[in-house]
Design brief:
Structural class: mainly alpha
Radius of gyration: 21 Å
Distance between the termini: 31 Å
Shape: globular
Number of helices: 18
Order of helices and strands: HHHHHHHHHHHHHHHHHH
């Protein structure tokens, strides 16, 4: 990974400019009618490139992704603004009509993470015991508890596991790399599957009626209410998005420390995390406004503005990935791969049994593994109107994350050599 001392570019304004150029290039070429480009984008989703190309900047030392503040800005300012604009236009009744399969797949994903960690340790203990050894704070199983926290709830839950299990700094650093690489590679697989979801669903015999109904409702609304936006319209979109984002930050700055200082149990449910409150408040206000006349901002393109924010977030997530890091600690990555394969296999088996559409499997998985920052990205890869489903499931992940990760940690401790 690019070291902050050796990275070629350290100015975040330049980094943001590079990401903007990459996104512009991808969108320009993906809309081209040239036969070679049409064929290329038929097999390689544009969204996947928006994520992969920025990772090359980090991999080859052009940008130090871990030192850049671009992701922080995107996740703290653009993400809540994006969620607000997407949820304001939400059709909550239609989402409820999606049925219980989305929740079943989310809980299956959680179970896959809880089971996968101990199973990975058992398998590696039999094949290569040294890979899961270590003593005291730097025991491998302790480090893996932080991955469990990240893959069920997110960064706040990961930090909780680090404190609960007294994880040493060295093993924590190694596991953060495993977390980022393995999770991001899985996200890339999900985006690739999303691009071919119709064929996959047809082959599996999945019932996509409710999903198609939701998409048709959105498209019908656009057809009936869409109009050419004016500068006044765009300024209203910006005012609503960032005004509510500011309010959410204001409330989060109060609520996070309040719960952290007054309730010892708060961290078990991420209630001490400002980011948790930022996402919950933004989403709640957005959903509340969807029952008012404010939802008509969708008629002049609020979801397109939200999508632009979302793509900047995707590019900034990619900036944290170093595709060569897998060669630094290969055995840890084998552990991570076994873990993720267990999760993925369980998801696919249950999806097959209940004939769940690929959308439920992909978003249920990413709501666990990626959380609120990337679950909407995967959901939007199917259709922009489906992004709020990813948000709602990711918020649920915050609630169960620390509790389930703690159980996973105890199981890994029990099976560790």
């Amino acid at each position: 990974m690019a070291d902050p001392q050796t990275a070629l570019i350290t100015n975040d304004a330049v980094v943001l400019g590079l990401l903007a150029i990459i996104l512009g290039f991808i969108f320009k070429t993906s809309s081209s009618q040239r036969p070679r480009l049409v064929t290329f984008y038929k097999y390689v989703p544009a969204l996947l490139l928006c994520y992969f190309l920025p990772s090359l900047l980090n991999t080859f030392g052009i940008v130090g992704g871990s030192q850049s503040s671009v992701y922080y800005v995107a996740s703290r300012y653009l993400l809540p603004a994006c969620l607000i604009l997407l949820t304001i236009s939400i059709d909550l009744r239609a989402i409820i009509n999606l049925g219980p399969k989305a929740l079943i797949m989310f809980l299956t994903g959680t179970a896959g993470i809880v089971i996968g960690g101990p199973l990975a340790i058992l398998i590696m203990s039999a094949v290569y015991p040294e890979a899961v050894g270590g003593h005291g704070p730097d025991a491998v199983w302790r480090g893996m508890t932080t991955i469990a926290g990240s893959w069920i709830g997110g960064g706040a839950n990961q930090a909780s596991m680090k404190e609960m299990f007294e994880v040493g700094g060295d093993i924590f650093s190694a596991m953060v790399t495993v977390d980022v690489i393995v999770a991001n590679l899985w996200m890339a697989v999900l985006l690739l599957m999303a691009a071919n979801h119709k064929a996959i669903d047809a082959k599996a015999g999945a019932d996509t009626t409710a999903i198609e109904d939701l998409k048709q409702r959105v498209e019908k609304y656009h057809a009936e209410h869409a109009r050419m936006p004016t500068l006044n319209d765009y300024m209203m979109i910006i005012a609503i998005a960032f005004g509510i984002t500011g309010l959410a930050h204001f409330c989060a700055d109060i609520l996070g420390p309040f719960f952290a200082n007054n309730y010892a149990w708060a961290k078990e449910y991420s209630l001490n995390s400002k980011f948790f409150w930022l996402i919950v408040i933004s989403t709640t206000i957005g959903i509340s406004l969807s029952f008012t006349r404010v939802r008509h901002i969708e008629a002049f393109g609020s979801s397109k503005v939200a999508s632009a924010f979302l793509y900047i977030l995707v590019a900034s997530i990619g900036l944290h990935m170093n595709v060569m890091a897998i060669f630094d600690s290969p055995m840890y990555f084998v552990l991570g791969a076994i873990w993720m394969l267990t999760h993925a296999s369980l998801m696919l088996i249950v999806a097959k049994l209940i004939k769940a559409p690929l959308f439920y499997m992909a978003v249920g998985s990413q709501a666990n593994v990626g959380g609120a920052a990337s679950a909407p990205v995967v959901a939007a890869a199917f259709h922009p109107s489906l992004a709020p489903v990813g948000v709602l499931l990711a918020v649920l992940g915050y609630g169960v994350g620390t509790y389930m990760a703690y159980i996973c940690g105890l199981m890994m401790q029990a099976v560790a050599p």
